[in-house]
Specification:
The chain is α/β, with parallel strands linked by helices. The protein has one domain: Response regulator (Rossmann fold, 3-Layer(aba) Sandwich). Helices cover 44% and strands 21% of the residues. The chain is built from five helices and five strands. Strand 3, helix 3 and strand 4 form a beta-alpha-beta unit.
């Protein structure tokens, strides 16, 4: 029997180990990882193709930053649920995310935080 609570997620980070570990952890918690990307351009492409419930995205990436991808994804779907994951703790970053109404999860993060945010 399929659990309707399962969220579909794409994980975007330029660090492949982070993406792999993240994806494995989410799968262990019954969150369906339907795509992985390593830059902002692939994030937008995956969002268009897969239409996930949630986008987990790093901000500092080559080939299209997280901010680039967030804006493009919000243009495609203003209601898209996006969680930014970054080690950048600057107030400038926080302000930009607030304007985009995107919650910030700071690295190093607790996976429980991420699971809660996805399931909200």
């Amino acid at each position: 029997m399929l659990n309707v609570m399962n969220k579909s997620v794409i994980v975007i980070d330029d660090d492949e180990d982070t993406v792999r570990l993240f994806s494995e952890f989410l799968e262990e918690h019954d969150i369906n990882v339907i795509g992985n990307g390593f830059d902002g351009v692939s994030a937008v492409k995956l969002f268009k193709e897969l239409n996930p419930d949630v986008v987990l995205i790093d901000l500092n990436m080559p080939n299209g930053s997280g901010f680039y991808a967030i804006k493009k994804i919000q243009d495609l779907d203003p209601k898209a649920k996006i969680l930014a994951i970054t080690a950048d703790t600057s107030s400038e970053t926080q302000e930009k995310l607030d304007k985009l109404t995107v919650p910030l999860i700071q690295k190093p993060f607790k996976m429980e935080q991420v699971i809660l945010a996805i399931n909200q």
